[in-house]
Records
---
Amino acid sequence: MKTPTQLCTEAWLLVGLTGSVPGKLKLAAGRLSFIAMGSGTLWTKELRKLEQAVARPGIAEQLDRGENALVFDLPLSDLTVNFPWYYFSGGMKITAGKNKYRFSFGQPANTTLPVNSANIANVALRVGDQLMEIGTMRGRGAAWKAALLGTS
């Protein structure tokens, strides 16, 4: 892995099929960390599973209360990072020992409020927002790929 500089962006930790946790993904001093900002779409049971997986007692309660919590802070040398083609440059996967983390660089569509399809203006606005989000995701993905792998 290339020795990167610093980077910090919004990211969503993807859990299971439909769960996600918003937060900040940060790269600094040869380490990668993720600070979750609330519980996202995870239920208490899923938060406890996450807590056990990352061996950080107490984060389930912190996140359940809507607080920020450090999920991991790992040296880059302990990580395997890849950018699967099917994420279309909008996400990445990280493996650290037995733990696997999936990230989206944009807010998952299932976390936004539903739109009344009877109001065509709302539907058009939502479609426009989603298209803009794709551009944001791809931009963040390119920055992370360049920082971690030295490519764009």
---
Amino acid sequence: MRMRKKKHGAERIAACAEYLISDVTHLSTLGSNQTAIFPAVRPIHMEIGCGKGNFAVGMAVAHPEWNFIAMERVSDVACCALEKAKAAASDRPGDNLRFLIGDAQFLSDWVEPHSVSRIYLNFSDPWPKKGYAKRRLTHRNFLALYKNILVDGGELYLKTDNEGLFDFSMEEFEAMGLTVLFSSRDFHKTPEAEGNIMTEYEANFSSQGMPIYCARVKF
């Protein structure tokens, strides 16, 4: 479902400018010069497709030992996430959360190679039509991009409600030679779910009794 365009969206995003990476050139030295974006150097975790920001904000609060970059392609959606992050700023004394409005296909152009420790894909668009497979964020073309920006041994976490996307993703992980550290077709019933931060979609699906599919892989 397409989000209704935000009234005064540009002004609202500008009001949260301190949490927005507006100059992507700062990402080109992410491994060697984090202080262009964050006040302290910490391992970088990145969520691709952050939606309205529940996961990113929750993880940044729960893990002050990490720096988080939350990426969202749709500016009106990013607006909601930015405002949520600003409202919860006092819960993040380490100031460890930033947002990036952009498309994942350009990640390797923007982000310094081998600078990100972990990538999260939460409830990404499944693009269910067969002809759209290359648009899925777990397609091998995207996995190659992630490999470029992840540190050696970096990890990718996937959560989805879509069994088809999960099966496709597991096949792509195998094709790319990735090591599967964990996988489940009912994540919330596993010990791995302890401390899990839910996205907006995840909370909704779980309240309806729908299973959550999850995988964690190492590059």
---
Amino acid sequence: MQKIKNSIVDRMIEQKCTANEITFLLYISMFQDLTGRVTGVHYKDVCDATNMSIQGYYDVKESLENKGFIRCEKNDYSDCDITIVGNAYNGEEYNRAGYINTNHNIFFCKEFQELKAGAKLLAMKLMIITFSGKGYFEIGVKKFYDKENGYQKRFDVSSRVMRSYLMSLKPLFSIGIKDGKYYIEPKKIIYRKAGTKEEAERFREKAVEVVLRRSRIKEPGAGEQEIYNLFRQYDAKAEVEKKQLVSLIDRAVKKSLEILNKGKSWIKYKIINIKLIHKLLREEWSGTDKQQKAKESPSEERSENNNERVEKDPVIEELLYQALHPKAAQRKGDAGEKKYKNNNKFNNFNQREYDMEALEKLLLLTNPRSLPTD
């Protein structure tokens, strides 16, 4: 959801938000879900996108939180989850109240980014008025600069400063005076530019980046596209059921890595097994308790460390086998369709074959004492 309520813009004007605070809110709003929550805000991403310093990032985050614009939660060591307070989408009521689409091209323009804070807020206010009205703004010059009820009073600045704000918007708005009135109309540069990413596409790309970073997967390979497709498959359903999809998939990926690495604290094999992740996502979605499900499973095994009973999920075991022994799994699948043929012409009996790569991985993951012997 790339939207900010009109009421939030009015609060930004009242509390005189700084240029960095405005930029910060506009940036994170592009990656929020329907609850106004942005999962996995990383300081480096914000700094790279907005040219903000690291100290500036932390100062802005703290000041916006103190002013009541955002609420921050630390749910991962590498980043934080930020909710834009009062910006949750609730359907027709939200639409009637009005909002600004933060995917408009104006917010990516250099001309807007270089404006002073007051000029940025004036531009946003003019967008609200023109988009909800005739497509242009008509107001008397005297009324615009009125100290009691005009925009000079609303922005709490002198007429000279207010005039400088208005004139600095000329690259973005057509501004003319006729019969003692201002006529202000947005230029085409404000609207969506050809080739600009769609809202859903931008959200999914950032969500995939968050999931991979939180699991420290630096070389995802084809798995990056697979996780993107998973977001595309479930994002509509998540909106309907008001689920935090990024958090759900993040937990599913982390659990899959724990399973693939036999629960070891040091995760060596960072393999994206999309089938396993998909299964775990469905469990997360339904709120199933994994430990309770393990107790109800019929197959059991003894823990080597504490002799507790540990349940096996046959689906997960099969996915684990496929991930760690791809060649053996492929041969096993082929055998189901056609019986393996012995191509050795010298001997007329089947000879045992070993998948050395699979055995090597098995040796790295398994306690040698638990390996079968001939």
